[in-house]
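Figure-free illustration: sequence to structure, shown twice.
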Amino acid sequence: MPPSPHTVSVKLLTINVHKGLCQLHRRPIIVGLKEAMLRVDVDVVCLQEVLGVREGQRPQYEALADTIWSDHAYGKNAASPSGDHGNAILSRWPIARSRNHDVSQPGDETRGVLHCQLTLPGIPLGLHVFCVHLGLRQSHRRHQMARLVELLADLPADAPVVVAGDFNDWQQRADAQLKPAGLREVHVSSQGRPLRSFPAVWPVLALDRIYVRGMAASQPLPLPRRPWWALSDHIPVGASLSLHKEAA
């Protein structure tokens, strides 16, 4: 079906890249990861556990974005003597503004929510993309999602929004907390349940999600099992989205 002149189409992918190391052989997989993402031909990518500044090496998010996604933003979540890692958003459209929100909880790993506003043609409020990596404890995730809901409340009510990333929500409790904010999960809405994404070799847990609001339409983006299962300990989750254009 040809695209409607009244909508803008967006293909989005989210994946926890496990610091760019193959889970089976502990070898770098950035080149293979970039090739796999290029074959899917997505417009926006949300990355978690991607490496940033390291001595003598290019940040992984820059290497992945190079020549494909013209804009990118990075939010540092954790640092060590060898470098740092966090969330990143890669985009084929300009990123008008970005901000990383620290949602860490005491006694847990540092966590962040990276918020970018993308400039899309015909979308005056832009597309707001939140890339998240939530904690391992349910009590921490509850506080982190409450903070996310606060951030969403600061946006115009009719602004299109995507919240994507690694929710670590193996108990599937996120929907109850996010639905009152108008968010719905793409796979749950289409197929009745979230996509199982972890562990990559035999996924049994639905940890990675894509929530949306303010869309004309949304549906899961089918992805092959190969080569993703060998590129991280998570497989990616994708969505095809349609946004209403403002009437001329």
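We now fold a second protein in the same way, so the two outputs can be compared directly.
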Amino acid sequence: MPKDKSSFNPFYGLLIVAGVAFSITACAYGMMVYLESQKSAADRGATAHPLLEFLAVYGTTLLFVELAVLAVATFGAIGTDDYWKRRGKSQ
């Protein structure tokens, strides 16, 4: 069976890293929203975990930046896939 010697597309690595980061951020942001909705009026003054405080301030921006990186990496991977396959075959 012949081996496929196609080169690794670096956008795939970026997609994995950005996808994992986006998934973790989205889950943490969802947890923050859920916990905030479950707080009573007396608990609202209590100190939250630093991650939840960070997400309360920068969470939406962080999610949109990660989503933009995912979009760019997706189009980059699709757009350069033929290049990396041809490069692998010529080696």
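Summary for the second example: Residues 10-39+52-83 form one domain.
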